[in-house]
Every structure is written in structure tokens, then in C-alpha cells.
Amino acid sequence: GAVVSQHPSWVICKSGTSVKIECRSLDFQATTMFWYRQFPKQSLMLMATSNEGSKATYEQGVEKDKFLINHASLTLSTLTVTSAHPEDSSFYICSATGVREQFFGPGTRLTVL
Amino acid sequence: DAKTTQPPSMDCAEGRAANLPCNHSTISGNEYVYWYRQIHSQGPQYIIHGLKNNETNEMASLIITEDRKSSTLILPHATLRDTAVYYCIVRVYNAGNNRKLIWGLGTSLAVNP
What we know:
The complex is a heterodimer. Chain A is an all-beta fold. Chain A has strands spanning 4-7, 10-13, 19-25, 32-38, 45-51, 57-58, 67-73, 76-81, 90-97, 102-104, 108-112. In chain A, a hairpin with a 6-residue loop joins strand 4 (32-38) and strand 5 (45-51). The radius of gyration of chain A is 13 Å and the shape is globular. The N and C termini of chain A lie far apart (37 Å). In chain B, strands 1, 3, 4, 8, 9 and 10 form a six-stranded mixed β-sheet that branches. A four-stranded antiparallel β-sheet of chain B has the order 2-7-6-5, with no helix packed on it. The model of chain B has no long low-confidence stretch (mean pLDDT 91). Chain A binds chain B through residues 1, 4, 6, 32, 34, 42-46, 49, 51, 57, 91, 93, 95, 97, 100-107, 109, and chain B through 2, 34, 36, 41-46, 49, 87, 94-96, 98-101, 103-106.
């Protein structure tokens, strides 16, 4: 099946710094990518939908100025967590839409100290 | 808001069939049912999806009731590597007309030797 990669797989940062997470579709072009967040023992929560070349659509309650999404090409979307705080510590997962299903990346574990 | 309900946990003996139920009584006529699974600290893995007909692939079978209010995922010969959280998901369209997966809490399946 199609492959979606994320980088980095884990990151530890200090409170107040910004962290960028990359999501790439390796063998297909993804016009739409999604960013999710998952807290321990909880389900995936959709943060935003990203269409190539246009502004992302954020879910209710997600701060667009804090979670900056850029989808500059058909194979790359980035999520930047700006001024990260400990409550932003979570498992961030991206996915890319194929012909019929969504393919998910392996996730990025963010820990903010 | 999740549109599906699943039992929080299930057990299955290795080599036996695992039948995972899902209720989606408010599903609309054009909304697909998707199944994904997530092994601890990894990204979700696509399993199967369907609209109203039963579906089978190399991983599993999906049985959808005639009224489409419930479905069952069948893993015909469960192995220890099938231990994971299984999510039954309804795919809807968001305000931007993008396909969107609504995630519930899933069923934690434990396959026992």
C-alpha cells in the first residue's frame, strides 16, 4: 500500500520553542492531507484538513495561529507547533488521501518540557 | 462527534476468528464505513471499507447489515500480531467538501496464545 512518512518520529523541546513536523507521501500525490492529535488512551482527534496550495481548514477549537499548517506541494505538508507548552505534548499523526482510503504516517511523539 | 459505538475491549484465542461489532445507527446513505487498526504508538493501518455490500480482502471481511445500522469486522484466523485497537469509522464530508473520518474510541482486541 501507499506509504506516508513523518519526520521526526519523536522530539523533545523546551517550553516556548516552535517545532516543525513534516509529512510526506512517498509514492503518490496527495491533494489532501490531514493532521491528527492523539492523547494517551484516547482516540485520534482531527486538527485540520490541508489542501495543496490553499489554506488549511481547522476543526473547531484548534488554534490556527498556534498550529501552522503548510501544504506547499502534492507530497509534503508541515505542521508547526508555535510556542509549544507542556499541554501540547501529544502524538501527532498525519494522513494523506489516496484514491479511496487515507494512509497514515507513523506519528510524531512531541514532548514539551 | 463519533458516529459509531464499539465495545471497549474483546479477547480472542489465537487461530480463531475475531468478530468485532460496530453500531452506526445514524449513518447516512452516502457515508462509508471504514475500519482501521492501531498498534501501540504507531499510525493507524487501513483494513477495509464498504458502503452496503459485504467486502473481503486479504486482511479481513466486512459484513454490513441490510439497514446499514451496524457492521462486523471479521479477522478469520487471528494471530498475536493482530492485537491492536480497532476503529470503526464513518467517513463524512466536512464544510470544505473534503472526506473526513470520524473516530470513536475503538475496540482493544487482545489475541491470546
